[in-house]
Every structure is written in structure tokens, then in C-alpha cells.
Amino acid sequence: MAEQAQYEQYEELARQLGAVGIVKRGMGRILPPDCPAGSAGVLALLGRHGDMRMSRLAELLSVDLSVTSRHVAHLAARGWLERLPDPADKRSRILRLTPAGVNLLDELYRRTTHLLAERLSDWSDDEVGQLIRLMTRLRASFGECRSTANRHPAPLGPGSQPDPGPVAKTTRTPAST
């Protein structure tokens, strides 16, 4: 019976995670018309990780290089990022936020922070902190980059246990990013 209860918890978790799309769409409505969510994601990654090659950006986005290239072209056309020659490999380009891109990213963070403060105004500081810790831990459990993105696990049935993957030998603590 305990296995059935755990399975039902995972089912409910899957439903709740699916509903996160509602939150993401709500947050997407605050973006400027010329900065779709994919472009905002690229800006955020460059802001968090700094200058990088297109291949690294594609890896962090967990999308094909052609999709990444379209996002980069969109941002470059608006002057929010620049593509510089890679000194280590002249065939490659290094992506860097421009001052206008940094300003836009700052504005996006302000808008997002305002929206979250408004929508979570009835949450305690402890509840917000707990959500941050749990979401950080969830993201860490899946990894920053989905290197197993092409792996499709078999659906779990009642009594099945999810494959925990490789077991770490050390205790993991949530990292703030």
C-alpha cells in the first residue's frame, strides 16, 4: 500500500509540475513584445553564466543548435548581444551581452520580481524561501543541462520505483544561482 501512495504522490507532482505552465505563461505576459520567452531565457543564461560559445548556450537551453541560432540572431538584430570571434578558435563565435542587453535583462528581472511580489504577497517569507529551496533542489536533481534529454524512461506504473540514476557519494546541498 505504501508503494501505491508513493505512486499517487508522483502522479500529483506530475500534475502540479504540468500546471507550472500557467505560471510561466503569466510571467511571459510581462515581457516586451519584441522579447519572447526564448530570447529572455537566452539573456538570462548569458547574464548568469557570462560569455559563451553558441554550442554551450544550446546545451544550457537543451535545444538544437539551429533553435539557439535563431534566438541569437533575434537578440543580435536588436542589439542585445554581440557575436565576437573566439580567440581560441576563429571559426567559433563568443556570445556576449551588450550594454543594451544588460539593461534589458535588468528590466526583465525588475518586472519579474514585481510580478512575483504581487502574486505571492499573501505568502510568508518562510514559504517563499521554502519554495526557492525546493525548486533549486528539483532543478539540481534534473541537472542544469539535460544531458539525457533524448532518453525516454518507461512510464511508471503502480508499485514501480523511478530510476534514481547514478547515486552520488556525497551529500548535495542546494546551490544558489
Offer a quick outline of the entry.
56% of the residues lie in helices and 10% in strands. It is mainly alpha-helical. It has a domain at 35-120: Arc Repressor Mutant, subunit A (Orthogonal Bundle), CATH 1.10.10.
Distance between the termini: 39 Å
Report mean pLDDT, rounded to a whole number: 83
Strand order of the largest sheet: 1-3-2
Measured by DSSP, the beta-strand proportion falls in 5-15%
List keywords for this structure.
177 residues; mainly alpha; Arc Repressor Mutant, subunit A; three-stranded antiparallel beta sheet; 6 helices; disordered C terminus
Task: Outline the structure in words.
Strands 1-3-2 form a three-stranded antiparallel β-sheet. It contains six helices and three strands. The chain has helices at 2-28, 37-49, 54-61, 65-77, 99-119, 125-142; strands spanning 52-53, 81-86, 89-97. The longest helix has 27 residues, at 2-28. It has 177 residues and is mainly alpha-helical. β2 (81-86) and β3 form a beta hairpin. Residues 146-177 have low confidence and may be disordered.
